[in-house]
């Protein structure tokens, strides 16, 4: 996934989160730590950290635990990115050389494992056992989605519902964690299901936006397994040309973004405000380009 750099009209600083992660990298061998720092400095809008920080503030969490929760969300997300690039053999990430390509497969495996372990350590530092449980559930769901995504490389998906289920699991769980963990830490266990609903719908819209942007690159993969892309799925399922499938994909992505916005806005104490604004920000250009087509 590419990043949305503005998640809220309010300025949300992730400096403390970045400092927590950088300090944790200091425990690694120098070459692995350098790979981790290079990966993190390559870009990314810290979407999950910003959503978690805003949710924690809205729910009344103290600064230290909400920063720890936000760091955990970023760490587990980056663990998934490093391992995903290795599995997919993607050579670039955020415009830079991917970890496995720049530093070797062994380093990519070790760094991804470290990021995942560090995420658990960061959540433990928040002092909330309930939040730690949310991390495990999110990782398990993400792996389920990743397994399905890998299978789709060898058996193309013909059904949009199947595609959306994969995106919901692979991407939605870790976005949802940025809401679910603060809610768990603040004692709002009844709202966690709604947080997952919001995050999953946002993730599908987000992934569809990325698929539209990547459609030319994904189509030009001679000799390689087809990458799962919503445009290809819609074209096959509805027997549409690629240009018409792109329009249909934009409209479907807007539906998911609007649902995510409503679900996030309904969370208690304004906890979902940052994700609701991110969904609105994501939907706007998709709606405009679909209307103009």
Structural account:
This protein has 293 residues and is mainly α. It has one domain (15-292): Farnesyl Diphosphate Synthase, CATH 1.10.600.10. Helices cover 74% and strands 1% of the residues. It has 13 helices and 2 strands. A two-stranded antiparallel sheet has the order 1-2. A hairpin with a 2-residue loop joins strand 1 (92-93) and strand 2 (96-97). Helix 7 runs antiparallel to helix 9. The longest helix has 28 residues, at 192-219. The chain is globular. The two termini are 25 Å apart.
What secondary-structure arrangement, pairings included, does this model have?
Blueprint: H1 15-25, H2 30-41, H3 47-58, H4 63-88, E1 92-93, E2 96-97, H5 99-103, H6 105-125, H7 129-152, H8 160-170, H9 172-185, H10 192-219, H11 230-238, H12 242-265, H13 273-292
Antiparallel strand pairs: 1-2
Helix pairs in contact: 1-4, 2-6, 3-4, 3-9, 4-6, 4-7, 4-9, 6-7, 7-8, 7-9, 8-10, 9-10, 10-12, 10-13, 11-12, 12-13
Mean pLDDT: 92
Number of helical segments? 13
Strands side by side in the biggest sheet: 1-2
The N- and C-terminal alpha carbons lie at a distance of: 25 Å
Beta-strand content estimate: under 5%
Order of helices and strands: HHHHEEHHHHHHHHH
Low-pLDDT stretches are 5-10
Give the tally of β-strands.
Answer: 2
Which structural class is indicated by helix and strand composition? mainly alpha
Form type: globular
Largest sheet: 2 strands, antiparallel
The CATH class turns out to be: Mainly Alpha
The CATH homologous superfamily = Farnesyl Diphosphate Synthase
